[in-house]
Amino acid sequence: MSISLAALELLSGLAKVKVVVDSGDRKRAISSVCSYIVYQCSRPAPLHSRDLHSMIVAAFQCLCVWLTEHPDMLDEKDCLKEVLEIVELGISGSKSKNSEQEVKYKGDKEPNPASMRVKDAAEATLTCIMQLLGAFPSPSGPASPCSLVNETTLIKYSRLPTINKHSFRYFVLDNSVILAMLEQPLGNEQNDFFPSVTVLVRGMSGRLAWAQQLCLLPRGAKANQKVK
Predict the structure, then answer these.
(1) How many Cβ atoms sit within 10 Å of the Cβ of residue 160?
(2) Which positions carry the signal peptide feature in this UniProt record (predicted)?
């Protein structure tokens, strides 16, 4: 077990190395992780143990790292198909289609994941895919899935002197996502009279920033009312 976990950790580290890697080599690395998950999940039931499931979970986490660091691999149809089949295997315990059987639709399948931990890891991988697939390139480059905004940036560009690092509230979701919430307007184009919240989401697929404000009327309508 320790050797497998060490190998997966090393493979995750290699995904973060900033060197030019051929697309074929990256695809082989992702395919190898997928094959590893299939092999471990296909073992006989008596061999399934907590250690085995820990290795499968680590493999899914390694897969998330590779997809996060190389999101352009999801643009290749065969690579995306293979990854989605592995996610389906982790969530339901079997694939809907293989070379020997006909397609088995979701409604006809009996969910039987290897364990709930494996299912959660597969669902986290699916969330990672949905956040990265077809995402519009960010200002930091088309290969970066993360937002450049963080707490320091919000404090720096805020026009309100009352905002500081103690203004943020932090929450943990599913032991994998950290939410940083600022429940006050930034003093820029946001109206100070309406409830506002800025959320920084940190997860396995990167950091995202969202700003929301409760407006009962369009901004243009509010401007017209002020003129009258």
Answers:
(1) 14
(2) 1-15
Residue (of 72, 75, 74, 99) closest to 87 by Cα position: 74
For the segment 32-58, the average pLDDT, to the nearest whole number, is: 89
| Two structure tokens written together for 108 | 């006809």
**Res. 21 pLDDT band, cuts 50 70 90:** confident
Tracing tokens 């395919």 back to the chain, one arrives at: 31
- Environment class of residue 199 by beta-carbon count within 10 Å: exposed (0-12), middle (13-18) or buried (19+)? middle
For 29, residues 6+ apart whose C-beta sits below 8 A from its C-beta are 11, 14, 15, 66
CA proximity to 129, closest of 178, 79, 202: 79
CA distances from 86 to 39, 106, 122, 208 (A): 11, 15, 8, 26
Is residue 129 a contact partner of residue 67, using CB atoms and an 8 Å limit?
A: yes
Q: pLDDT (tens digit, 9 = 90+) per residue, 135-167? A: 655 555 555 556 778 888 888 777 667 777 788
SS3 assignment, position 205 = coil
SS (H, E, C) 91-127: HHCCCCCCCCCCCCCHHHCCCCCCCHHHHHHHHHHHH
pTM for the full predicted model: 0.60
Q: pLDDT tens digits for 167-201? A: 899 999 888 889 999 887 776 665 566 778 889 98
Tokens matching residue 87: 């996610």
